[in-house]
TrEMBL record:
It comes from the Bacteria. Pfam families: MFS_1_like. Gene3D superfamilies: MFS general substrate transporter like domains. InterPro entries: HcaT-like, MFS_assoc_dom, MFS_trans_sf. Residues 6-357 form the Major facilitator superfamily associated domain. The chain crosses the membrane at residues 38-57, 132-150, 156-176, 201-221, 236-254, 261-280, 286-307, 327-348, 354-371. Keywords: Cell inner membrane, Cell membrane, Membrane, Transmembrane, Transmembrane helix, Transport. It comes from Pseudaeromonas sharmana. It is found in: Cell inner membrane. It is a multi-pass membrane protein. This is 3-phenylpropionate MFS transporter.
Amino acid sequence: MRPFAWLSLFLVAIYFVYGAYIPFWSLWLASRDLSADQIGLLIGVGLAIRFAGQLLIMGKANRASLLIPACRYLALASAVCFLLFYGVSGFWSILALMLVANFIYPTLLPLSEALAARMMLQVKLDYGRVRLWGSAAFILGSMLVGALVKQSGADWVLHTMIIGLLALILCTWLPMSPAPQDAISSGQKTGFLPLLRQKPFLMFLLVVSLLQGSHAAYYGFSALHWKAHGYAENVIGYLWAAGVVAEILMFAISKRLFSRIGYQQMFLIGAVGCVIRWTILASTTALPWLVIAQLLHAVTFCVSHLAAVRYMTQQMPSDQLIPAQTLYAALPTGMFTAVLTMLSGVAYQHSGGMAFWGMAVLVLPVFVLRVPGQKKPLSTHVS
């Protein structure tokens, strides 16, 4: 199977599961009689353990030829972990299992990004057109689960995730041709520590941490917030779907839209979108404004993520892409977002939607920070 088709199917399965998990896992937890601060702690701890899982697992799968085998084993282990949720109850049991599940499953995301980045260099893969299939699957998952939860209860969050994980296992055993090939060495030291000693890369991590971390309150508590203001679960699913529809359109046109715009300008565009979006969510729950805020997901997440991918593929030597992708997943969208999710849980418990104001303030430093470029050998542009 060609890389475009393989990665598209792989992302469809991954993001179908996330379409159930991200918007509605808090509702599944609430159905287990957990409070908002307990839910914030559980989600935050889950995000934090991703940091360790991604660093450890991606540190072992540090060559392109190891990425697909790693995907196979992680998909199987993920299905086993989430099946175990059927037999747990109580805060501490759920916490223990969430630590294990979040150690394993989220690592599939940086693996998919590393595969896509490698194939962008190897076969000139159009990243945006591959990634949009994952976004489409997220819409399907969120809309389906919203309707099922409304009709049959929160147990369908977990049921749907299991179905998606079984499909994911099947996808990983399909052959890819040409297979990912290990990059030609740039002659530079590779691994996490050499990257963390580079000031440009540290500035990159700081900027993307602020942009992606500002989504913490939205990912963790938007469903609870909207439900508390009278919105049914299926409407919440439609709102999440609206955001991802906008994301799909952005991925589809990104290559043309940003062909003459650098990653620095794209980070600024993402920051503007974040300030506007979180201000709206903090100020109102009127449906027209919520729709506008959701459409801004194309800017707050998508443009920011595309800028990060552009920085890494254009500025990093090809044999440093996997460590860079790992740190991008583990720190900004892992550890940093985990801390912010836990803080958002406390804020939401005491002040409700006012927690979104903190997310708007968080991105303000991006307007004055600059991510410098890096020099890399010409030989790393191709392989």
